[in-house]
């Protein structure tokens, strides 16, 4: 009888993982119902890739080992993947959670049985789903519309995969932590977007990283977005372009180390600072 009662209770009250998995579907649907979010975080990298590929169509960004020209579309593809990681994770979640805190959504969730960890799982799952879909779309546009040659080795695609997963998880937890900074949902966009824009410019997303001053490259390498872009370049660009990087070589261990450190630090920040309701609100 006791075991039957315990089983019934487990059925009535799903665990945090089950609630989080169910929450992912809700978060994905809510994301695609917001046209501004879909444009500025989902379609924006595709738009930028199209602009750069068209504007710099006649410019040569280097040559591969066979002497073939690296086009603007090929050169900017890794950067747009890194931008997508930052926009889908950090910008999207920082603004979205700040708005939910401001409009009372989090306050209402605080009165439900939903654990904080389930809420986090829902947000992280949403970023993984939308970020992966976005990455496939960006790569597809580059390959089909601009005839960018894609890697032919499993090692290169494995690098794309782990750099993406590590980057998007890091960006997402930092977005959750950053959502505490805006004092209201109305100010979230004004606070978050300038931070994201500065990070992209100094990290070589919109500008060729090798053209930045060396001191600025060193500052950029403190942050994970520069390493996400570096990792994508290592996977998608020919090895002949490694000389344009700081140190003149691909540094995949550095990608793992810096991104991993920010992931751990972001998780700690989330656990220490996340509240359903602002105490100073």
From TrEMBL:
Asked whether the keyword Membrane is assigned, the reply is yes
Membrane-crossing residues? 38-57, 77-99, 127-150, 156-178, 190-209, 254-277
One GO cellular component this record assigns the protein to is: ATP-binding cassette (ABC) transporter complex
Alphabetized InterPro entries for the sequence: ABC-2_transporter (IPR052902), ABC2_TM (IPR013525), ABC2_TM_bact-type (IPR047817), ABC_2_transport (IPR000412)
Q: Which residues form the ABC transmembrane type-2 domain?
A: 36-280
Q: Can you provide one Gene Ontology molecular function annotated for this UniProt record?
A: ABC-type transporter activity
Alphabetical UniProt keywords: Antibiotic resistance, Membrane, Transmembrane, Transmembrane helix
Tell me the membrane topology, using the record's own terms: Multi-pass membrane protein
Q: Which GO terms describe its biological process?
A: response to antibiotic
Keyword Plastid, does the record have it?
no
Q: At the top level of its lineage, which domain of life is listed?
A: Bacteria
UniProt subcellular location: Membrane
Protein name, UniProt field: Transport permease protein
Q: Which organism is it from?
A: Arenivirga flava
């Amino acid at each position: 009888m006791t075991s039957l009662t315990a089983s019934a209770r487990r059925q009535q009250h799903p665990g945090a993982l089950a609630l989080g998995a169910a929450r992912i579907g809700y978060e994905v649907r809510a994301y695609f119902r917001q046209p501004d979010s879909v444009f500025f975080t989902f379609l924006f990298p595709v738009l930028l890739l199209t602009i750069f590929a068209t504007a710099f169509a006649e410019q040569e960004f280097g040559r591969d080992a066979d002497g073939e020209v690296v086009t603007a579309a090929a050169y900017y593809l890794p950067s747009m993947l890194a931008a997508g990681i930052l926009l889908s994770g950090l910008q999207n979640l920082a603004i979205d959670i700040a708005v939910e805190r401001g409009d009372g959504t989090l306050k209402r969730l605080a009165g439900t049985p939903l654990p904080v960890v389930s809420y986090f799982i829902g947000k992280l799952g949403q970023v993984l789903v939308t970020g992966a879909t976005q990455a496939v779309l960006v790569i597809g546009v580059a390959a089909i519309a601009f005839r960018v040659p894609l890697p032919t080795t499993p090692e290169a695609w494995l690098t794309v995969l782990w750099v993406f997963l590590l980057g998007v998880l890091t960006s997402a937890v930092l977005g959750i932590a950053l959502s505490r900074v805006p004092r209201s949902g109305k100010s979230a966009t004004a606070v978050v977007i300038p931070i994201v824009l500065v990070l992209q410019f100094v990290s070589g997303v919109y500008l060729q990283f090798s053209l930045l001053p060396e001191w600025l490259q060193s500052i950029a390498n403190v942050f994970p977005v520069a390493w996400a872009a570096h990792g994508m370049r290592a996977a998608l660009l020919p090895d002949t372009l490694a000389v344009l990087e700081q140190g003149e070589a691909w540094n995949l261990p550095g990608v793992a180390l810096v991104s991993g450190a920010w992931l751990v630090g972001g998780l700690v920040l989330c656990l220490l600072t996340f509240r359903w309701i602002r105490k100073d609100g």
